[in-house]
Structure formats: C-alpha cells, structure tokens
Amino acid sequence: MSLIQIQNLTFGYDGSFYNVFDGLNLQLDTDWRCGLAGRNGRGKTTLLKLLSGELQGRGAVTAAVRFEYFPYTLNHPNLPLLEALGETCPEAQDWQLERELSLLGLADSLEKPFSLLSEGQKTRALLAAMFLREGGFPLIDEPTNHLDAAGRAVLASYLQKKPGFILVSHDRAFLDACIDHLVSINKSDVEVRAGSFSSWYKERLERDTA
C-alpha cells in the first residue's frame, strides 16, 4: 500500500475563462480499485492526464508509482500479439502475458497480428500488458467504448481481481462491477468514499431531495 497525494492542483485550458481544477486536494490509496465519476466537462480525463504527465498544472502530485494511461498505442502493431505486447512490458515473461491474455479471452489470438484484432480485443490486450508493467499504476479511460456485453463482462471480471487502478467509465453497471472506491467530481467539490457508484448515487439523491 502507498498513497497518491494531490495537493493544491490547479489547471485550466488555454483560452478558457474557468479552471477545470482550482486548488484540488485528494489522497488516494494505490490498492484501491477506484472509479472516477462526474458529468461531462467536469475534468475526469483531464485529471488522468495531469496524473500521467500529459498535461501540466500547478500544485503537486506525489506518488511512489509510475502512472500509465489507457488508451495507448503500440510501436509495432503488425507484430504477432504476444510479441507486440511484450515490447510494452519487457520485464514480463511470456507465460505471464499468456496468462493475462487467457483471462481476457484472448488465448487463441497470441500469434495473430495485433493490428488484425477487433477493437474490443485490442482494448483487452492493451489492458493485460498494462497490469504487467513493473511499478505501473493504470489510469483507465473509457475502456468499454468498443466492447459488447460479453466483452464488458469479461473485462469486469478481470478488473475485479486487480488491485490498484483509477477507472473512468460512463457504464454505471461496469463501474459497480469493478470498483471498491469512488471519486466524484461534483460542481462545487470532490467526494471520495468507499463502495460502488450505485451506493454513492443513491445517497446523493437522498441528500438532494431531503
């Protein structure tokens, strides 16, 4: 277990009158399966990109892990799947990668070029490699966009067993199946709580109607 400390984080896009974040303070545990929720435009993807270093804000982010952002691209997508993914996690053994791919229903695709996989298969394959990167902490942005119901169920089952990630998804049922903590970016504040999206949403509705 280690902590991700976000202190006084401020960020706004060039040309925008308002900041997306203004003095944000958060403390997260790297063992949490953490969902990130909020209406469109509240800054979910922006926060992930600030953590990953793709965007630069003011303030401080302190963590003993290396943030890894999904989705990402492969350097050589025309290579066979096992070889193409192996380049992204060179410290992993082939048997480890084969195990992860098997858990995600891709055991029959190891020799197929990555570029010939369906978009849903690519999603699952890229996530398998992310979880094998030593010292990495996955920041997973909308992984269900190209997954059918069966693919979402397989990925949810996989993520249930993986400690340590932040997940953005508009699919509430998928979030409920994967997470044990939730960060909600609201209009006027940011909430952190244990539990599922649905339990948080029920409590919010009760507060709003009280």
Would you give an account of this structure?
This protein is an alpha/beta fold. It is 33% helix and 25% strand. The chain contains 7 helices and 9 strands, in the order βββαββαααβαβαββα. The protein has helices at 44-52, 81-86, 94-103, 119-130, 149-160, 172-178, 197-209; strands spanning 3-11, 21-29, 33-37, 58-62, 66-70, 136-141, 165-168, 181-185, 190-194. The strands form 2 sheets. A 6-stranded mixed beta sheet has the order 5-6-7-3-8-9, with helices on both faces. A 3-stranded antiparallel beta sheet has the order 2-1-4, with no helix packed on it. α5 links the parallel β6 and β7. α5 packs parallel to α6 (172-178). The termini are far apart. The relative contact order is 0.17. The mean pLDDT is 93.
What descriptive keywords fit this protein?
210 residues, alpha/beta, 6-stranded mixed sheet
List strands and helices in order, with pairings.
Blueprint: E1 3-11, E2 21-29, E3 33-37, H1 44-52, E4 58-62, E5 66-70, H2 81-86, H3 94-103, H4 119-130, E6 136-141, H5 149-160, E7 165-168, H6 172-178, E8 181-185, E9 190-194, H7 197-209
Parallel strand pairs: 3-7, 3-8, 5-6, 6-7
Antiparallel strand pairs: 1-2, 1-4, 8-9
Helix pairs in contact: 5-6
Number of helices: 7
Number of E-type strands: 9
Major beta sheet, strand line-up: 5-6-7-3-8-9
Task: Name the helicity range.
Answer: 25-40%
Low-confidence stretches: none
Topology as a string of helices (H) and strands (E): EEEHEEHHHEHEHEEH
Mean pLDDT: 93
Q: Which overall shape is indicated by the principal axes computed on the Cα atoms?
A: globular
Largest sheet descriptor: 6 strands, mixed
What's the N-to-C terminus distance? 38 Å
| Structural class by sheet pairing and helices | alpha/beta
Fraction in beta strands: 25-35%
Query: What Rg do the Cα atoms give?
Result: 18 Å
